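Supplementary Note 3. Input sequence used for the single-chain structure prediction.
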Amino acid sequence: MLIELDIPFDQVTSPIVRRFHSIWTSKRGDRAMPAWADMDPAEMRGILPNMFVVSIEAAPFRIFYRLVGTKAVTFRHELTGRYLDEITEYSEDVRAELAREYRLVCEQKRPTFSKDTLKTQFGNTLTVFGSIFPLSSDGVTVDRCIALEDYDGNRPDDIAQSDAVYGYGNLPKRDT
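The predicted structure, written as discrete structure tokens, is reproduced below.
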């Protein structure tokens, strides 16, 4: 598995991520970031299944999954109603990496984009583009984020077991 974090937007080829970037930018207007109240689910048809909506708690810094889309659940497990640091399906390294990415979004108040290249059980590769977009109810503090992952028509059981340990695919629940 190759993970590329905080890649430039012009390297993102995912139509889902690019479309949401346009929505987020239009809702933002002159502000650094839009608010959750600005988001209209009707404008996000086709994106919602790939979406993660999280609340950000500042002290201590924690990520709470408020809503996870149906397609995201099939690839990343049911995370709704859980804190990132309590998700035992992910290794400690994966949880720490995700927390670092969310922290970067919160500190810099800008979206980040990522590209994961995974192995399939058939020896091929597949690409998952991801993104995290900040939201702020007061225009200053990031209190929510919308994250997306584009699985590009792949199925979770296509992912090789060696890459499933990164939190993708059909991986049994971990003990730690």
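Strands lie at 2-4, 51-57, 62-68, 82-83, 112-119, 125-135, 144-150. Residues 171-176 have pLDDT under 50 and may be disordered.
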